[in-house]
Specification:
The chain is mainly beta. It has one helix and twelve strands. An eight-stranded antiparallel beta barrel has the order 1-4-5-7-8-9-11-12.
Length: about 180
């Protein structure tokens, strides 16, 4: 009689106090402006023996945006950009996890911004080795990065510059720095 071993699957919750979603966009075609969202929540289902069978879901609260300028933050929450009243959260749901040619993790998934869902791929650093915190919780961390065209998600507002070009770049770099706590 043969018995098949059940894969070890563990659940990890995003620690919103130690996690952030950051973005970077070209401003006036001369420098980058960064902002971040602190309202990050989600769950990682981790297959201990083969991380490529794992899955992750995350939600980001648009109202937690911070670009260090209250006026810009208000504009980004408006219908010109994220329309936070109608679309209060952005989300990511993984569809596959694999490895690139260098052996690094790549998470493919559905990213939803402003009610528009598109396929994206995040390059992942980590996960880190598990560590115990002073209160007995087990934690891991990772960073994931991707680039998107904001227009693909209905974020089309812009302004022409007097000298030519546009006020806001189209390419957005998204970085997720996440810490997870084992459930």
């Amino acid at each position: 009689m043969s018995t098949l071993a059940t894969p070890a699957i563990s659940t990890w919750n995003i620690d919103p106090v130690h996690s952030v979603a950051e973005f970077k966009v070209k401003h006036m075609m001369i420098s980058n402006v960064k902002g971040h969202f602190t309202g990050v929540n989600g769950v990682l289902s981790l297959y201990e023996t083969d991380v490529t069978f794992s899955g992750v879901e995350a939600a980001i609260e648009v109202a937690t945006i911070n670009t260090r300028d209250e006026g810009r933050d208000a504009h980004l929450k408006s219908p010109d950009f994220f329309n936070a009243d109608q679309f209060p959260t952005m989300s990511l749901k993984s569809t596959s996890i694999g490895r690139n040619g260098d052996g690094d993790l790549v998470v493919a998934g559905d990213l939803t911004i402003r009610g528009v869902t598109r396929k994206v791929e995040f390059a992942v650093e980590g996960p880190s080795p598990a560590a115990k915190d002073p209160w007995g919780n087990t934690r891991i961390g990772l960073s994931a990065t991707t680039k998107i065209n904001r227009k693909d998600f209905g974020l089309t507002w812009n302004a022409a510059l007097e000298t030519g070009g546009l006020l806001v770049g189209e390419e957005i770099t998204i970085t997720l720095d996440l810490q997870f706590v084992k459930a």
